Amino acid sequence: MLTSLSKFPYLRQDFLASIVVFLVAVPLCVGVAVASGVPAELGLITGIVGGLVTGLMPGSSLQVSGPAAGLTVLVFEAVSEFGVATLGVIVLIAGLLQLAMGFARIGRWFRAISVSVVEGMLCGIGLVIIAGQIYAAAGLKAPETGIGKIAGLPGAFADTFGDGDALVSLAIGAGTIAVIVLWRKLPKALRSVPGALAAVVLATAVTQVFGLKVATVEVEGLLGVVQPPGAEAFGELASPAIWGTIVAFTLIASAESLFSAAAVDRLHDGPRTQYNKEMIAQGAGNTVCGLLGALPMTAVIVRSSANVAAGARTKASRVLHGVWLLLFAAALPSALALIPIPALAGILVHAGWKLIPFRQIADMWRDHKGEALILVVTAVSIVAVNMFEGVLIGLALSVVKTAWEASHVRLEVVDKGAGPVQAYLTGNATFLRLPKILDSLESLPQDRPVELDLSGLHHLDHACRTALESWAERHSATGTEPVKLTRLTTAA
């Protein structure tokens, strides 16, 4: 016995932490699944795989994987367009791509993605989740687009206040949020129970005691919802449209997992994340989830931070949390059917609110207005278009901003009143600075010879090279001596 304990010196800490993570995971797994438009059990299956498969693999020892609120919008769109049966294929291929990226050692490059794009992505996701789940809390059908969800809120509230059942349903959702927020102010002994779990239990008890007419989770059992993708589902891969969704799943799930790993590393003093191995672990988990027809998996910061805060020391805590999820889903599936959907909507509204980086937006606007603009544009694009294209827009803006800042070029003109006008270009001459360069050169005297020295340039792109040559030809055509270009051929 002593020998066994010596092999697992942190078993007690990991065991207690696993219970806490399990209690946090249950309502989140179910809530994310319902919000994604799939059976609740699929969320539990993904949580189980996150514990028993990804949890056993090397990478990040303390972060916990499962279905994430951040992918809710994308999953809902995919299910609406391609159907639940095709979801498994999408997740499977995304998992295989993650495995390939991990083995190709691409994982570490995700750390280079602009923070403003990541924060904008989370902000946009949070806004869409909040808007969509308000409809769910009131028992109403939400519009399909992000803009439609937000624009339709006034009408939804008007309909709710004119319908007694809808008002009761919304009140349960609002009460759930209130319990989660106020739970942190209670004595420490009570706070050992996660606020999300307490809110769900209280909402369930209230609806049962008072016989309230609200929608509840529909449960069929784990085996009843497992749908390995068939030949027809694989046939969807012939459609170009599905590949955009697959790429979006791959990139966003990978980015969210690795950004979460970086955040979790800042919460503890244990072993640091091995990013390529973590990518492989996430890929393995998503491959299994795809084969089971379940939701896609990411590392989840809410569970991971709860794991660290509960005192976990090794990966045993996250593996055990998967064991508890499996036992719960197998032994007590009927308990899920008592959970009111507005309570789960309340949990996701709270989760969506926490995704909006209010403090980061304020800090960026004060110190880096360009980064703040990228954050806001990314968030608005996700709401207005969709997640994948919104992130691409944010990344494109980030690249343009970086290129603009890197294109520092200076034109110094020396005119001694007689002889040629001497112009010196230094720095990095790219197309982004081309208008400024040409405006300055075209203002030089037309009746004087010009010597343009490019030896001080570190970089001269093709667009600038062509434009300078064209300007030199035009200037020389006025009857003056030809423009003398110094070291144009050696500029990189």
Overview of this structure, please?
The protein has helices spanning 2-7, 11-35, 40-52, 72-82, 84-103, 115-138, 146-151, 153-161, 164-183, 188-191, 195-210, 222-225, 231-235, 240-265, 275-292, 301-309, 316-331, 333-336, 341-355, 358-367, 369-384, 387-406, 434-442, 462-476; strands at 65-66, 298-299, 409-414, 421-429, 450-460, 484-486. The protein has 492 residues and is an alpha/beta fold. The protein has two domains: 8-356, no CATH class; 409-486, Transcription Regulator spoIIAA, CATH 3.30.750. The strands form two sheets. Strands 3-4-5-6 form a four-stranded mixed beta sheet, covered by helices on one side. It has a two-stranded antiparallel ribbon with strand order 1-2. The longest helix has 26 residues, at 240-265. The protein is elongated. Mean pLDDT is 82; it is low at 1-6.
Describe this protein with a few key phrases.
4-stranded mixed sheet, transmembrane helix, Transcription Regulator spoIIAA, alpha/beta, 7% strand, 2 domains, 24 helices
